[in-house]
Write a structure and sequence with these properties.
With about 400 residues, the protein is an alpha+beta fold. The chain has helices spanning about 95-100, 105-125, 155-170, 185-195, 270-280, 295-305, and strands at about 50-55, 75-80, 85-95, 135, 175-180, 210-215, 215-220, 225-230, 240-245, 245-250, 260-265, 305-310, 315-320, 325, 335-340, 340-345, 350-365, 370-380, 390-395, 395.
Length: about 400
């Protein structure tokens, strides 16, 4: 008797179910507001600018009895903080989708948009490292030159001591000093103190607080500023690729047809133009320029604050976090990979949020639905006197994997 093969397993009779919740999205925790001065917000209930004056520094002269004192001329000048940075995240939800979708997309969007906008503010504050009067370089930790250095368990505590000394050189107060470190520095610090003390950074508290050590309130952040440069030795070849923060960009000499493809044309300058547009999501995507990365990869780039700049013969990127960059061609190398942990006095960086991240609904004209706009408005400034109260470290990130 011939056997009969049933088809019960072909899926027709199999039930399918949907989970009650959508997949979890992970976000960076924001810490920078814990170290910023937000008091100038009181002046900006309206308007967009707060001015702060500073004057000429006094001098000392030797006085000779019976002779005229030479009185120097004193003057004043002005700096200002301007609230002029507006960021927005938007989407459209049709009323039909609102009725028929299983999940509340407006609520999902509001959460995600609020997180990414807050992340942007965090990055804006930490970007003020570039205004610090002092930095820690290779020469400070036993090396040579003003470039980057590799932190390890032997020099990690020294980094804090050097930061303290550089603040002392400017007579910065001993209290309310902060340090913001990233995942790798936290790991090194944990290894350094292992066996000698317990409880360091076992948990991350409010605003990323880890512990108080070495005269600093230490905060953890995966938003430390990062920079790197990629220089092609010659025109990228077909299927050559680079990666930035886990996102791959592949050069194509033929037609671009896959997410992340970048058109390699007959000259390096134009090829780099296409690459910059692909990374930043600007320009016009297409088979002759680039194909946009996937939504998930764009999220990775946005969360890391990746921005590409075109140097004609090289690509520069800036971002935030422990970012890894790679290349498939060792002749086309990444260089100058650096991260910048920040040390200083709380309040040295002024930050005014005139509009906190918030979602607004606007009825769409001639549509059964609404536009959702999450937006914020802020300004930042490190005034000239406060620059002395900041120190950053030049960390070598070239070996990160």
């Amino acid at each position: 008797m011939a056997s009969v093969l049933n088809t019960f397993g072909n899926g027709v009779y199999n039930a399918e179910y949907w989970a009650a919740n959508m997949q979890e999205t992970f976000y960076k925790e924001n810490v920078a507001l814990a170290i910023a001065n937000t008091q100038l917000r009181d002046y900006l209930k309206d308007g967009d600018t707060v001015n702060k004056a500073y004057g000429t520094y006094p001098t000392i002269a030797t006085y000779t009895k019976g002779t005229d004192i030479s009185v120097p001329a004193y003057s004043g000048t002005n700096e200002y903080l301007q609230v002029a940075t507006a960021k927005v995240s938007s989407m459209y939800i049709d009323d039909i989708d609102k009725l028929q979708n299983k999940w509340d997309q407006a609520a999902v969007f509001a959460k995600r948009a609020g997180k990414i906008l807050s992340n942007n503010m965090d990055q804006a504050i930490l970007a003020e490292y570039s205004n610090a009067s002092s930095y820690i370089s290779a020469a400070d930790v036993g090396g040579s030159g003003s470039g980057t250095f590799v932190p390890n368990t032997s020099n990690i505590t020294e980094i804090f001591a050097i930061a303290g000394r550089k603040l002392d050189n400017y007579d910065v107060g001993q209290s309310d000093r902060f340090a913001i470190i990233g995942p790798r520095l936290r790991e090194i610090l944990r290894l350094s103190v292992a066996g000698r003390e317990t409880g360091f950074g076992d948990t991350v508290g409010d605003n990323g607080a880890l512990a108080r050590r070495f005269g600093f309130d230490i905060y953890y952040s995966n938003n430390l500023p990062f920079a790197a440069t990629w220089t092609p030795d010659n025109l990228p070849t077909d299927e050559q690729y680079i990666t930035i923060a886990g996102v791959t960009f592949t050069f194509e000499t033929g037609t671009c047809d896959t997410a992340g493809d970048v058109k390699a044309v007959s000259d390096v300058a134009t090829t780099l133009d296409n690459l910059v547009d692909a990374i930043n999501g600007t320009g016009t995507a297409g088979s002759g320029t680039y194909i946009a990365v996937s939504d998930r990869d764009r999220w990775k780039l946005n969360k890391a604050g990746i921005t590409a700049t075109d140097g004609t013969t090289y690509l520069g990127i800036t971002g935030y976090g422990d970012i890894v960059v790679t290349t498939s061609d060792t002749n086309d190398a990444w260089t100058s990979q650096a991260q910048y942990p920040l040390f200083g006095l709380k309040g040295a960086i002024n930050f005014v949020v005139q509009k906190a991240p918030e979602v607004e609904f606007h009825q769409a004209e001639l549509k059964l639905g609404k536009y959702l706009f999450a937006w914020q408005l802020y300004g930042k400034k490190t005034f000239i006197e406060d620059k002395d109260a900041l120190v950053y470290a030049r960390i070598d990130a070239s070996s990160w994997t």
